[in-house]
Write a structure and sequence with these properties.
single chain; OB fold (Dihydrolipoamide Acetyltransferase, E2P); five-stranded mixed β-barrel
Length: about 110
């Protein structure tokens, strides 16, 4: 799935250790679109390298395209849904039209 919008919030990086003893990192960021309804998307970036790259290349106020997967997990009878971003890139900013100069043909 894909969405385009403005990064409005970047949360602090969360760190931990898995049951297997591996360290992990996760970062949540929020993108808002221009849609009237369902316009707020809290995305997760998981993994040390992905988190570092996100922090290095993205900031609040930036317009981005986000490719993501929707995943759900069950824990103690409750279900949790997350939006896992796997590709984030800057959207092309609209450019101002060039002014018309010179002689017009009419």
């Amino acid at each position: 799935m894909k969405v385009t919008g403005k990064i409005t919030k970047i949360m602090e990086v969360q760190k931990g250790t898995s049951k297997a003893g591996k360290e992990w990192q996760k970062l949540t960021f929020v993108v808002e679109t221009d849609e009237e309804y369902n316009n707020v998307y809290p995305f997760e970036v998981f993994g040390v390298e992905k988190v570092e790259n996100f922090v290095k290349f993205n900031k609040v106020g930036q317009i981005v395209h986000v490719d993501f997967n929707v995943s759900a997990n069950e824990w103690q009878g409750k279900y949790f849904t997350s939006l896992s971003a796997w590709k984030i890139f800057k959207a092309e900013q609209p450019t101002e039209p060039e002014p018309v100069t010179g002689d017009l043909p009419f």
